[in-house]
Structure formats: C-alpha cells, structure tokens
Description:
By secondary structure, the protein is of the alpha/beta class. It has 14 helices and 35 strands. The strands form 9 sheets. A 7-stranded mixed β-sheet has the order 5-4-1-6-8-7-9, sandwiched between helices. The longest helix has 19 residues, at 518-536. The two termini are 62 Å apart.
Amino acid sequence: MNDNDVSGLLLAGGRGSRMGNVDKGLQPFRGATLAAHALRRLAPQVAAVTISANRNREAYAALGATVLADELPGFEGPLAGLQAGLRHCATPLLATAPCDSPFLPEDLVQRLREALLAQDADVALAVTIEADGDGAARKQPHPVFALMKTAVLPQLDAYLARSGRKMGGWHDGLKVAEVLFNDAAAFRNINTPEELQREDGAQRLQDLADGLDPHAMPVRRARQVIDGFVRPVRGVEKVALRAALGRVLAEDIISPISVPAHDNSAMDGFAFAGAQLSPDHPTRLKVIGTDFAGRPSGLHPGPGQCLRIMTGAVMPAGCDTVLAQEHAAGIEDDCVTIAPRSVRAGDNRRLKGEDLMAGHPALTAGKIVRPADLGLIASLGIAEVAVRRRLRVAFFSTGDELRSVGEPLAQGCVYDSNRYTLFGMLTRLGCELVDMGIVQDDPAALEAALRDACQSADAIVTSGGVSAGAADYTRDIMARLGDVAFWTIGMRPGRPMAFGRIGAAGHDAFLFGLPGNPVAVMVSFYFFARPALLQMMGAAAPADVLAKACSVEAIRKKPGRTEFQRGIVSIAADGRREVRLTGAQGSGILRSMTEANCIVVLSDEQGNVAPGDAVEVLMFEGLV
C-alpha cells in the first residue's frame, strides 16, 4: 500500500434532529459551512473525498466532492452512509469523519493508517482520554473517526441486516487498532444551535492574530486578541446575599417592588397641597396631626390644613408638597406660616419608583457585587442571588533556582516570590486557587504539571520559562497540548509571554505564561491576565481608568513600545496631582512595586517626558 491508498468519506446523511431538523453540515460556521471546514481538513489527507448526504445533494456537490445517498431507506444513521461509501470506494482503505467536526486533527489519517498497517488491523479508530462523571480518567473511543479496509464491507452488511445501527457495534470479530490522540477537543462535534453559536464566536487563536508579528506584538493588539479568544465559564449557583460580595451576577436583578414604594417626604417638615400657596402673601395652614416613617396617622388634610411629617413618611392623600421645618416663617402650636416663594408646589417629595420601578432591572448580569450593591439588593427584599461559579485558577512557578519560603538557600538560588504575588492578585479577583508550587526545569515535570492543571482549573497562570532564552521544550510542550502562541510584547517590563488554550484528559484551560522577573509578572498579569480572567468570570469589566498627573521629573522613553513605570502620586501645594518615579525601574526590583501607588503608562507613541509634562497614571488601589 502507498500514500494514495486511502479515500475519505464525510458523513452528512443524518436528520440533524438536535440541530432543529436542519441539514447540520450546511449550517454557517466562521465564514463557510460545518461540512466545508471538515472537508478542508480531511481532503489533504486522502486521495479523494466523497460526501454521504441524503438531502441538499447539490449544495454538498458544490463543495467539490462526489455525493452519495444511503442505499438503505429511511435515514438509518451513519452506518448506512458508511455502507454506501464502502461499496463505492475505489481504494483499499476508507477514512471516515463526521460533517459536524470542523476541528478534526490534520494528522488523523496518517496516524490511523500507520497503526492499521503496523498491527495488520481491519479497522483503526481514534481514542482520547476523558473524564467520567466522577472526574476519573477513562478511555473514550471515537468510532466515527476511523480508517478501515474496504474488505470489511461483508461484516457491516451482515450487521445492518440484523438491524444493528450502533456505530461501534459492528466491529465484533474484526481486529481493531486504537490510536490515542492527546487533543480531545479536536474530536468535538457541534450538535445544537447553542453549541454552534458558542463555537462560531470562539475563533482560533491563529485566526485572531493573523497578520500580526509575534516578535513585535503591540500591547493593545495583544489585549484585543486575548479578549476575542477567552470565553466565560458556564456554571451558575445561588448564594445567600452576604455571600454574594465580590461575586459576578449571573442574571439581572429584577426589582420586585418600587423603591420607594410610595410617594414620601424627603425631609422633616409640613405636608400639604401645593395649590394653596400664594405667590404674593403668606400662607397660613392649620396642623391637624403628625405622620411618622412607618406610622401614618391616617389623616387627610383638607383646604387650609397640613400635616407635620417626618423624613421617609408616606405622603398623605391630597398632599404633593413638603415645607422644610427650618424654612417655615412661623410655627405655632397648631399653625404654620409659609412665606411667599419659600417653597414651590411639588418640592421635597420623593416619588414612588424614583429610585427603582417594580419590574425593572436593579442590577445587570455581569456586575461584580460591591457593598453598595448588597444594600440595594437587601432594600428589595431579595435574600438569594444567582452568581457565576468561582473561576478556578491553577498557578505555579518554574525554575531550578527557585526555593520555597522556609527552605535554606543554596548558592545561586532565590526564594519564589512570584507565587505569592500571584496568590494575592488572584485572591483579590475572587478566584478559587490551585497552588501547584514550584515546577523544576524538566520536560516531564512541566508536562505533568500542565496536564494536572488542565483537569483541575479553568485557567493556568505560570511564571518563568517563556522567554527567548528558555528551554525549547517549554514551548514544545505547551504547543503540543493545545493552541498556544508565544509573543514578544512591545512593552517594558514584561516582553515575553505565552497565551492560548491547552487540553488534557478531556479538559481544557486557558494558559497565561508570564515572564519570570517579579515586576514583569505583576505588570503582565494586570494588563493581560486580569482582564481575561474577569471576562472568564462573566464580569462586565470596565476599561482601565487612567488619570492625568504632572511628572515631577524627566523620564527617558523611546517611541515604539509601551512602558509601565512605577510611580508615586501625591497632591502638590497648588492642588494638582503630580507623580514621581520610585527610582530604579528594573524588572526584578520588586521593592519598586511595594513603594509605588500607581503605574505611569507611557504609550507606544510617547517619547521623552519633560518635568511638568502631563502623563497618564493607573492607580494601584483595588487592582494589585
């Protein structure tokens, strides 16, 4: 046999019931159709491709492939399409793949063919390791991603004649070779409109970064690529109101009541009908009683009458105006005098629903719950709220020179500070943490750590091992486990960075490979990892809030890269905000971050800064 001994069969003959009974392979996906994407991946691996389809055959033929209908009547499933494909196959081997799997591996046929020939098997099929319902690893066969000898047709005919329809059920008596693939995500198919919408929006990293130089990636473009690639976690849970502090709302909080629930008084004073006011002469009203907040008198003032009223008390029927007690021209035991033009009709009355109207959103999904929000929700009488589940983030440091706190330092070694700063920043974000410690500079250890992290976390943050001088195996391992890009960011500090999504045992996680220098870790985390993690949390993250300050000193800066200098903002004698640098700005000087209260942001276009020039600063408080 040779490299031209394999034909391909794209299975597209199903009913598409989970997709709403539409022809699944022809559904639009990233500028083409699902079948077109699958065909582009399968076609280069085989001598020729045939599409098994029972509907819209002309549309499938327009993709440039021969189209075969099932020879069994009644939409009997993929095995009926396989039977027709085997009967008309012109080569000794036939490879199959479904039309709704646009991510199928580009080496699928090669690896299946090698295993089939090496083991002299009848069928070779793809296998991945995935997690079962309890999180334990299990072997998952994918019989629709298969390669077989055309000589197996009689076995399939006999199985179908017995009314067998299970895709892997006809292999009894055949020699089957199983081929393990590490990237389980490559075998996922798209079955529902919701899955189609979600996958269509999640472009691959290479597509998003197309045309950009990975060795000179501008800060703002890198952030745009990351923003377009990450997606929120899907888990939602109900928590008691106090437990919602710092969590992300999963749905709008709809007010069940109007706030305030009634028209009420904005201050202590006298309530009356404003139409009685005279513009030219004092108005004298008789006080017939007092209304307290929560204790109305039930009295209804008539013409020439008013009620003494306390702040928050419901406005009495017929009253629309409150005179503040201190603005009364005269107060006697049972009368109050109002000077002309001292109050206008409608003054000092808070209207029903002025703050919130029943049925309207009080807070919107994506908001991070702050103390004021707790009070607002409590004012609505709501005891539980739906929030996104906490984001699970695994983190570790890499390097043979690192030692944990408490261990003795050998010559040339340093204590691992990065894990502690990452712990602090991730904790302030409200993440659920998985501290994986220090990983030595060893390929097997690094791969094992990344695989373990994939199975326990939604995101992985590492420090060290991604610079141009790092061991080649670091990049090889990360790239082998998924879709990872290695960038040199046009910034200082923090130039090297890895970003992407990796997978293992049926789980995947977003990866943020940060530099190893302590200051570079913090800066890179804030400007790249933090906004992405907030997006994964489902938070409607605001843009960076930059303030202006006058530089006290000259700052040397070449255009062409973004620089983040550590600074101290203070208020000058004239009330202006001014900023000075903390001193030496080396990326390993962690003390500069503890002394600073802001970052001075000098954009790509910025050149040298003279004393007195305005610069942009980002305040640390609440961020790092």
